[in-house]
Design goal:
The structure holds two protein chains of two kinds. By secondary structure, chain A is α/β, with parallel strands linked by helices. Chain A is built from 13 helices and 17 strands. The longest helix of chain B is centred in the middle third of the chain and has 16 residues. Classes of the chains: A alpha/beta, B alpha+beta.
Chain lengths: 405, 147
């Protein structure tokens, strides 16, 4: 597959935005969907749809099989040991809430410590705050350095006998820093502390191999991986899932229910209460097929090439300040323009068909540390090209014109 | 061009050179507003005298050109107005932004009407409406602040 022509696989690009071709630089927010994924959703609803895991009729069997086939596919894709280690959720946010709630309920008590970093998205802070409020747990933040990275030493410093979990992003959605997860897991294992990785930004761009990373929990957001909206994955080591209490109760997750007591199903069913996102799960198989057809290494190499081109071009512009300079950066460029607020940048860029995000990107701790309230963010996907960067840079010039800079 | 309607000279000017910025002397009412989605912040200070007149009015804050210009314009327009008239202007302003209603307040000068109308460009940018209205909602909160 020629990566240069990949835009043609995404129907969203067959339109003009404000009369201009769409330059989509907001994939860290959500990625666009290839036709194969969209078609799979339609085909599923037209020919195979039924609820899964309950009825015995033909359609129920079909949809249950398709649903479980995706679990197998995800297991292979992330190299999990067991298919039962793949739990479907409504997003990476729910995956993290699941662990904060379930693991937290059982293992975190008053005075116990949770290590996060200053890079974390609110979705990997707020769920832990619930434990701080409810149970009196303590949250510690590993510092970000000037380059926008978190060094292993910063985490090492915070570990005590009270540390009950380390929850850390794989790839910062603001500075783009790729975090050395393996080293952190090594450190944590020596201290017998489980590690949760927020893979929201990591999974769409990096090769993710659970045996290689060795983490206990890994949260994935499918809509950022060219997959459908409303779907996430929690990978958790089976040894944890066997002991963790259910996160939600409802239909489908029980073993036996009587007036006096309830027993629960085995994992993964135990953790998938109620009717699941059937078409979303089924079509996510096509998103993985899409990534595998190109190869994640090729996607990463392509995105890096476009990103390096963008960084170089933006650095030449004196009015632009690029946030962070991590040695290992993935697919994200946050920037500010002197004299123009990021929201104004985003509105003016949109007039040129360029979609970026502006704001604190759900990372207020990080922005507080930077001493700025908001940044503009251009983030890449497989469909972006150097030409997109050229259009972005021209649009930035228009932005400066509007503000007489 | 809609973009030009949004970023009119008056707005760029107020955004760049905000009027009445800082804490005004002897303020006796204040309120804070912020937009949790984008992080824009505004803090309104006002002195309401014994005759229920807004004797002094100022703001602090940070945010986009639209939100800062809107706060700056607000202080210029409302300063010196009597409480009930201030409330009427706020109501008119919010109606102008949310609906297709023109500002009708007779006590405003033509210049003031032009200035306040310059913010109506946000109507075509639904995601930016909050930028323009935040300061005005915060002013309401400051006026209503119980002592």
């Amino acid at each position: 597959m020629d990566i240069k022509n990949i835009k043609s696989e995404f129907p969203i690009f067959n339109q003009k935005i404000n009369g201009k071709p769409l330059v989509y630089l907001d994939s860290a927010n959500s990625s666009q969907k290839p036709k194969a994924v969209i078609d799979r959703i339609t085909k599923f609803y037209e020919t195979e749809y039924s609820n899964v895991g309950r009825s015995v009729h033909t359609l129920a069997v079909k949809s249950t099989n398709r649903f479980e086939e995706t679990r197998d596919k995800v297991k292979e894709y992330i190299n999990a040991k067991h298919r039962e280690e793949i739990i479907f959720t409504k997003g990476a946010t729910e995956s993290i809430n699941f662990i904060a709630s379930s693991y937290g309920e059982k293992f975190i008590n008053k005075g116990d410590e949770i290590i996060l970093t200053e890079l974390e998205h609110h979705s990997n802070y707020v769920p832990w705050n619930f434990l701080r409020e409810k149970k009196g747990a303590i949250i510690k933040f590993a510092s970000m350095n000037k380059q926008g990275e978190v060094e292993v030493d910063e985490i090492s410093k915070l570990i005590t006998k009270k540390t009950k979990i380390i929850a850390i992003t794989h790839l910062s959605n603001v500075t783009g820093a790729i975090i050395p997860i393996k080293k952190i897991v090594d450190l944590a294992q020596k201290n017998k502390i489980p590690v949760l990785v927020d893979g929201t930004q990591g999974a769409p761009h990096l090769k993710i191999d659970m045996q290689d990373l060795g983490c206990d929990f890994y949260a994935i957001s499918c809509h950022k991986m060219y997959g459908p909206n409303g779907l996430g994955i929690l990978y958790a080591k089976k040894s944890w899932l066997d002991v963790l209490p259910p996160y939600q109760g409802g239909g489908g997750m029980i073993d036996e229910v009587t007036k006096s007591s309830i027993t629960y199903a085995e994992t993964p069913t135990k953790f998938e209460a109620g009717t699941m996102q059937t078409a979303e799960v089924v079509s996510f198989s096509e998103a993985i097929n899409f990534i595998e057809r190109i190869g994640i290494e090729n996607i990463l190499a392509h995105e890096n090439e476009v990103m390096e081109y963008g960084l170089e071009k933006l650095k030449k512009n004196n009015s632009i300040n690029i946030i962070g300079s991590p040695k290992n950066r993935g697919s994200v460029i946050c920037f500010t323009i002197k004299g123009v607020h990021p929201h104004d940048i985003a509105t003016i860029l949109d007039d040129d068909g360029v979609a970026i995000r502006a704001g604190h990107h759900c990372c207020q701790i990080l922005h507080e540390k930077l001493g700025i309230a908001a940044t503009a963010r251009a983030s890449l996907g497989v469909y972006n090209t150097k030409e997109d960067i050229d259009i972005l840079c021209n649009a930035i010039e228009n932005c400066k014109k509007v503000f007489n800079i | 061009m809609e973009l030009k309607e949004l970023y009119q000279e008056i707005i760029l000017d107020h955004g760049k050179n905000p009027r009445n910025k800082g804490k005004c002397n002897q303020f006796n009412h204040e309120a804070k507003g912020h937009n949790p989605l984008c992080g824009d912040k505004v803090h309104i200070f006002l002195k309401l005298n014994s005759e229920k007149k807004v004797e002094d009015l100022s703001f602090e804050g940070e945010g986009c050109a639209i939100s800062m210009a809107s706060a700056s314009i607000l202080t210029e327009i409302i300063k010196g107005k009597e409480y009930n008239l201030a409330k009427k202007i706020i109501e008119d302003f919010l109606n102008m932004i949310k609906k297709e209603i023109k500002i009708t307040i007779n006590s405003l000068t033509d210049d003031q009407k032009t200035t306040i109308m310059s913010l109506s460009g946000v109507k075509k940018y639904p995601m930016r409406v909050k930028c323009a209205t935040m300061a005005w909602h915060t002013l309401t909160a400051a006026l209503e602040e119980k002592k």
